[in-house]
Amino acid sequence: MDITIRPMTVEDTRRVGEVHVRAWQSTYRGAMPDEFLDGLRPEDRAEMWRQGVDEAWPGQRDVIVADGRVAGFAAYGPAHGGGDDPLGELYAINLDPDYWRQGLGRRLIRHVTSELVRLGFPRAVLWVEATNDRARRFYEVEGWHFDGTEQTDTIDGVTVDEVRYARDLPSCVEGRS
After folding, report:
1. pTM for this structure?
2. What is the mean pLDDT of the chain?
3. How many angstroms separate the CA atoms of 56 and 159, rounded?
4. What's the CATH superfamily of 3-168?
């Protein structure tokens, strides 16, 4: 499989919207109401991502492309409400379920980690739905750990319990210090 990771473009956003909906419907079934998940529309998510690219929202958005097809995406940058400490955040990472368990998620999160280092963050966080054991195991294998912080968030009117994962980032990128 030919794999590339690159910045998200407006042309990618239709497919990113599809990936976003497919990933959520597969991941959050049982954790979020079926009515909510079944009502997700790829075109709505695509429009959200198109705005992010067009309006250059804070942070970065990248896609992972497998054999010419967008298989997933990640968004990351400065932590929301990070305070005085420089703190990076993985805002979102999703793969189309057709690409699960092929190593693409690992490649994408390692790319994001490297980018957060390149951006100068000494530490990073992410939020994950509390009962998403598959994602939590994935993050733990990649060096993230639950830091004891919990929150209840509202996503499009749906209440979601989340836990925060964190990790220290290396102080240099290979070949640089």
Report:
1. 0.91
2. 93
3. 28
4. Gcn5-related N-acetyltransferase (GNAT) (3.40.630.30)
